[in-house]
Each structure stands twice: as C-alpha cells, then as structure tokens.
Write a structure and sequence with these properties.
One of its GO terms (biological process) is phospholipid biosynthetic process. The chain has helices at about 1-15, 20-25, 40-50, 50-70, 85-100, 115-125, 125-145, 145-165, 170-185, 190-195, 210-215. By secondary structure, it is mostly helical. The longest helix is centred in the N-terminal third of the chain and has 20 residues, at about 50-70.
C-alpha cells in the first residue's frame, strides 16, 4: 500500500508542467501552441530562449530526482541489504514521474517528452552515469545548437555507459537504460526527419528572446 501511494505521489510530481506554467505566468502564452507544441525544455529553448529553457530543464530534472528520493521515506528500503529492491522501486517511481510529465494531470494530460525528467531520475539513482550523459548533452548542444540532437545522443549514451563503461550489474537498470534510448529515438522521429532534411531549428544559446516579446506586443 505504501509503495502504491509513493507511485501516485511520483506521478503528481511529474505532472508539474513547468513549461506550461512558465510560458503562461511569465510570457502570457501557452507553450503548447507554439513551436513543436510540446510542453518541455526543448520547445521552451526554441520559443522562449535559453534562460527560460534552462529553468524548465532544471526543474523537470528535479522532478525525476524528487520522485526517486521518495523511496527513502520508507525505512525498509534504507537497509543496505535491500539495495536491489530499492533500485527497483526507484526505477518505478522515476518512471511514474516521467509518465506524469508526458501526461500531466495538471495540464490536461498534454506534456512534453520527459527527457529531462528521465535524466533527473538517473541522476538520483546513479549520479556518475547521469552527469556523464549531461556532459554529452552539453557538448553536442554547444557544437550544434540542436537540443533534439543533443537529447538523442545523450540518451543513446545512457545504455553505453550503463552496460559497458560503468558495467552496472542490476538487470532492471540495464533494461531501463536500453528502453530509454529506444523511447527517445521513437519520440524524436519528427526531429530526426527535420535534422536529416536540414529543417530543425537551432536554439539561440547566446541571444535572449526580447524580440519575441516585442512581436507579441506588436500583435505579430
């Protein structure tokens, strides 16, 4: 029963639709009506700029971290002898947060793709792996300015790191890492097509989006 309540709490944490709340509260728009239509960090970067995008990305990552940390509220899982059960519960809690992000109850079940939340949960479970993936993401983003490409490559790096670099032994964690890479590739098919066609938008890393506000004020 306790685990079920924790899973529900994890889903509710994931349902905090940061991109929607920031876009409506700060910019007076619904991010889902602009750009790709997704309520995630990538679309926020593209539409509202790097400051808003970075904030959304960090908060969405923290949703994954907090969801995973819920497992530590139960004394049973703090016992070193139950490490396997702890990891399994953490994976379940993290996945519920990701589902909440994709289908948020607080935003009419229209969310983002869950990439930042996935990396947040990995950060809480295996920090070294997550930080390595973040490093890959930032490097690709700096070189290409494509958030989608950065997310795809960082996600593919996850199972490589888990299986071959860090040689993680936990079976469910290995399966999870592979599943994440497949999920990201599948959910980014349109982005991949635009990348191949040269139509994918780049994010303005060193520019703000005051022009966006001016266009809104001018009625464009």
């Amino acid at each position: 029963m306790t685990e079920i309540l924790l899973l529900i709490c994890a889903y509710l944490i994931g349902s905090i639709s940061t991109a929607v709340w920031v876009s409506k509260g700060v910019f007076g728009i619904d991010i889902r009506e602009h750009g790709s239509g997704n309520a995630g960090a990538t679309n926020t970067f593209r539409v509202l700029g790097p400051k808003a995008g970075t904030f959304v990305m960090l908060v969405d990552m923290m949703k994954g971290v907090l969801a995973v940390r819920l497992a530590l509220l139960v004394p049973y899982y703090r016992d070193p002898e139950h490490l396997v059960q702890l990891v399994n519960l953490q994976i379940g809690l993290g996945l519920m947060a990701v589902i909440g992000h994709i289908f948020p109850i607080f935003a009419n079940f229209r969310g983002g793709k869950g990439i930042a939340t996935v990396f947040g949960m990995v950060l809480a479970i295996q920090p070294a792996v997550a930080l390595s993936c973040v490093g890959v993401f930032l490097m690709i983003l700096f070189l290409t300015r494509y958030v989608s490409l950065s997310s795809i490559i960082a996600s593919i790096a996850l199972p490589v790191l888990v299986l071959f670099i860090f040689n993680e032994k936990e079976l469910y964690y290995r399966i999870f890492a592979i599943a994440v890479a497949l999920m990201v590739v599948l959910t980014h098919q349109k982005n991949i097509a635009r990348l191949l066609n040269g139509n994918e938008n780049k994010v303005p890393l060193f520019k703000n989006r005051r022009g966006f506000r001016r266009r809104r004020q001018d009625g464009e």
